[in-house]
UniProtKB/TrEMBL annotation:
Residues 964-1062 form the HTH araC/xylS-type domain. SUPFAM superfamilies: Homeodomain-like (SSF46689), Homodimeric domain of signal transducing histidine kinase (SSF47384), Periplasmic binding protein-like I (SSF53822). It comes from Sphaerochaeta globosa (strain ATCC BAA-1886 / DSM 22777 / Buddy). This is histidine kinase. It is an enzyme of class 2 (transferase). SMART domains: HTH_ARAC. The lineage of its organism: Bacteria, Pseudomonadati, Spirochaetota, Spirochaetia, Spirochaetales.
Amino acid sequence: MVPESRHKKIALLLASIHTGASNELWSEIARLAKTSHASLFVFPGGRLECEENQEYLRNAIYPLVNADNVQGVLTWASALGGSVRVEEVQTFLATLGTLPCVSIGMKRKGYPAVSFDAYAGVQSVILHCITKHKSRRIAFIRGPQNHYSAQDRYRAYYDALDQTGLVFDPRLASDPHPWTEGAAALSQLVEERGLIPGKDFDTLACSSDMMMFAAGKQLEALGYSIPGDVRIVGYNDSSESHLLRVPCTTARMPVTELAHMSFELLSNLLEDDTAPSFDILLPSHPVIRQSCGCTHSLGSTEQAKQSVGTPSLFLAWLVQSFRVHDATIPSIQRLLDEADSADELSYLSLAEDLVYRFLDRGGDPNLLSEALHWYTTFFASEAFKQHRANSLRDLFLRQRDLVAHQHAYALSVQAKSLDALKCDLLGVRNLSSIPSLLATHVRSLGLEAGYLVLYEDDENSTFIGGYDGQVHLEGQQTFAKHMLLPPSIQSNITEGVYVIEPLFMDNQPLGYLVVRTTLFSGSVMEELRTALSSAVKGTFLLDAANKAREEAERAQRARTEFFANISEGLRNPLESILSLMQDKDETLKEQVGEQLRTATHLLDLTLSYTGAFELERTIFSPSSLLSSLKASHAFSYEGEVELPVLLGDRAKITQAFEIVLQYIQKQGGQVTIRAELQSQGLQFSFISSHLAWKASLGNQDPSLSLAQRIILMSGGLVSLKDNQIMFRLGWPSLGGDSIASSSSDLMYIGGESESEVPSLFSAFSQVRLMHSSLLNKQNLSQLEGCILGWDGQRSSAELQLALYLLAHHPRLSKTPMVCFHAPQGYESLSSSLASSKLGNQEDGVLVLMGALGHSLAGQLGMMDNVVLCSKQEIEGVYANNKVRLLFSDIFDPVLYEQLRRLSVAPIVIVREHWKHEEAEQLSLIPRLIIAHRCVVESSEFLARIVLLLTHQEILPPLTGALVKRAIVYLGEHATTPISRWQLAEAVNVSEDYLTRIFRKEIGLSPWDYLNRHRIHLATNLLKQSTLTINEVASQTGFQDQAYFCRVFRKIKGMAPTKVRTTAP
């Protein structure tokens, strides 16, 4: 018979399910709900009114906890504080109305509460440090100001000092900090107050293990040893207590007991609401490990003998320390009784099973070693000590590796599914497609059902769609906002554990996702929430942009379609008329053909004003154009045989030339085409042999008007003078269209072997030669205002570097360039010239490993010498190619050491973030450079990469290590003011020396590098937040808004405000 509680619907209301002890608490309650056949609805709605990471936006799901959706409430009430006073938390709890309720950590008047004695737990570990390790100067990191339990823990610290006669020093206690800011609290003690760990304080006590972990990592980064230089202790016994180099002493928050007692109390209330309500206080026991200075949790041998010196005491200690369930105690007893049994295989099999189960549920491996130590000390026979003990130690290691690999594999499977989902969400164009993507990617993880709901207004929500097993739920439904789901769906949902994840972004609550899950992982839920929020927000922005664009396009489309329909409607009858004239008199046929051409030109001219007459602009040779024109039209030519290339639609420009030729010939004259190389561009003069003919008389001719329109649309200039029609087409630039130059000076960029300017440029009166080897960032300014000259037939490393510098210069990339012998058909002169293989690159390839794409190879001019590969393919690439340079975004020191043994080619690694430990590991590998991903946009850095491709010069490893440390320091401190002496002191070299080696290694000065990194951070803030420009500047390390705007414009080429208007 199924218990009555099967139909109970219970809400679990707490701030988070993915951080600290909350992950363990909610997953334990979820397991209890599953075994008791109750439906659990988990609401991780954030701390009340907390602005950190926009956490207050999560609060929007709390109103869903009402009598229409659930029958009872469990709430971790103390976790809701931190940003508001305790009284405000109580006021919030009152909004739950008369629903049966059990609170954890904080009493709600009229309802039972389950609490834990954090005061005694913290006091016990501090007293342990004082009595056992003679601690006298104890610093304390405080938790949030308005957190009920955090204040208890601070009082425990104060009272422990008072009880032992130690003087309270307020300088040793940090200000209140959020749970996530343990590192910031330590910085306050060490940096702001000038305290020296190990000297000014010998012990650091922390309000939580999360804070202890962050503070401990910073102590390790500063070079302090735990517990050698300073002891450290925490509270909670959460997973963070195992993540430092030594296992950490803490006090255990009885999370499992909290879950069981609170769930049982609420179940009793739901069964009988008249049952007496009472409060429960659970003890917090100290968990002694090594961060306090102890070797074993039980202390010395004499101390341990008092605790575990008899078999019954030892068994009791095992049951308590290993949290052994009653059903497992007989197996533990058997393990002790058969320690010397002859059947070693059976004995080790039993031990293997028990050890695996302990480690698989997150048990501390150090406890296994300690248990074996005390057993061998007090009870083991000599035979056990000599043989079986070693077998058990090996078994511990094997099982630990097995569990670690299994957990890592499970996490990798989860990550693979989530990554695939994120990738597909990037392409989402409408909301209705999201539920099917969820079903495809996360159902296999145990997320059995999902329902997407978005807020409509203050009164209503909209169900977008969902899935339940293999069934897809489609069709949007609007329903009352206080309901969890539309009634037709909510009444049919099955028993299970449901997580309601709030969706929000950019100060805007969007809605929520309801997930029925058998996977009780808070981190997976949070990652899913983040990905969905971004996708929904992106869809909203896309919808708004599409509506605006569609409205603008509608008017344009109506106009275009009107003219296009007229054009097509007239063109067909005109062609029919021409076909009817096939058998008529040739003169009449020619006259009709002329009129039809005029009508066609008139239609094209009309279309050119609607946008339907498009130009396909590419690099083309005017010499080739004139040669093909000569084959079908009679004219004389005056000018150079070889002409520089132009940028334009060759077919349309040919049409314009033909129209002019036919127009002049129709007037009875013969045509001479004269080509002249001028500083403003290439001018073509169409000259009639009739000197008295006036070109201006043709202004009203539709065909001639079309020819002029084509030239103007190509960026050219048209003039009519006497008996000449003149077209001037401007010189292209490396970036495409050029900005007209007022100078007539031409600077020819020559190779090392060139001592004079080629005769190709003899048409220019003022021509100078600059060798490409002299071209660098400082000399580029000498070219500004000049016209550039280039011969595309040449190839050398120096010329490639010069071309790269010019193409990536903000002004010179738009400077007119007179270029001969460039390949045709490319969209820009830069891509045309880069398309030619360089001889010095044909014997090697550029390898891009990871997520780096072809665009980087294009920027470096190596599209034909590039290999893209994954981490798994890299060794094969090295085996089959001569590698000139490896460019990667993957951190794997072991792999790079293997590759270094295969090749001396330089390795460049770019990543979003760098840690000190990562840089130190890579510093041991010669000929390796690291940088942040954002500097890849820098022309100076890419010029450095081009130089590496050609000369492959790089700093020695010890010198390069200094640059790597500076890069890490700049990345970690980019959001705060940094002075030159601070950076130099952090790296332990002089300012001038650091600047020199930094520029040599990276191609940028440290300060240019820092500015680029800060502007990258600022760009992200501008796109993802509504902060003012001044706030963005302040949060990215700039102390002056005006300076920030100048730097931003210099690097990005636009004002900061423009980023928001152009962001997708």
